[in-house]
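May I ask for a single protein's sequence together with how it folds?
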Amino acid sequence: MLQIMETKNFLSLTVLLALIVIGVTLTSGCIMLPFMASWTKTQPQSHQNLTPHPPATEINTENNGLSVKISPTEDNTVAGIVTVRLVSLPSQTDSILVVLIQQGYSGPTESSPLTRQGLVERLLKPAAGQEVLLDTSKVETGVYNLNVAAGLAEAPSDNPWLAVVSVQVVVNNSAPFGNATG
């Protein structure tokens, strides 16, 4: 009988120890759960990587000695008064033709101005540093090609250009930047 009692006490003690071990395991798990959750959470990325780059405020383009700066811009969007500055010219240039023409327009471009489809400005005896002002409020909002051509009077009539630069811009007369007049 003593042996049955010892076996019963041993089983009770074993069950009690098992319950203690299970209790401690569950309790420590519950206590550690908030800490463990923070270990597995993905940390937010640095704001440095998420910050967009500021938009370009000017477009610089060049070809064959003709270098032009167009401003103000917001990347390739323009509005209001846009300045086309001649940074450098091919040495024999005696005229500059600046044409802002709506993409898809196929009419004449030598007349000035084109009204709602585009603008044409001609400079005779141009010089580096000279500026041409284009009022984009005179044209419709849309996609345009802005071409600047350096000409030579003695050049063949089928190709009077020493150099041509061309960029595609979006005219947005409701843009929040520039001098948009509407």
Q: What stands out?
A: The CA atoms of residues 65 and 90 lie 5 Å apart.
